[in-house]
Give the backbone structure.
Amino acid sequence: MDSRPKTAEEYVELINQALFEIDDLRAAAEYDAESMGGVVEFLGHLDRDVRGLKQAMLEGRYQFNNSDLPFMRVVEAQDDRILPFKYLLRVINATHRMGLNVDGEDS
């Protein structure tokens, strides 16, 4: 199933959702720094890159490109239990690589 968004607005919404998840994870890590201290290290980088992606879209500078987004190296290095919204970031990256799902195909 192709879960890529069909419109630029849907793509921005996915990015906004990722930013919400990053903020939520940061709050949890700050609350429980003892057991989640390692999370904070990569969250700053992830937050900066995702915000930069959104800003590029808002300014009309964004271009789809058949290469991974810079933050994917950090994302793939994390366990799903540490980064529970990894799938969302993978969808954003797949959209960056392959473009919007303008055909509306689900397979």
Summary: Residues 49 and 70 are 7 Å apart (CA to CA). The radius of gyration is 14 Å. The mean pLDDT is 88. The chain has one domain: 8-98.
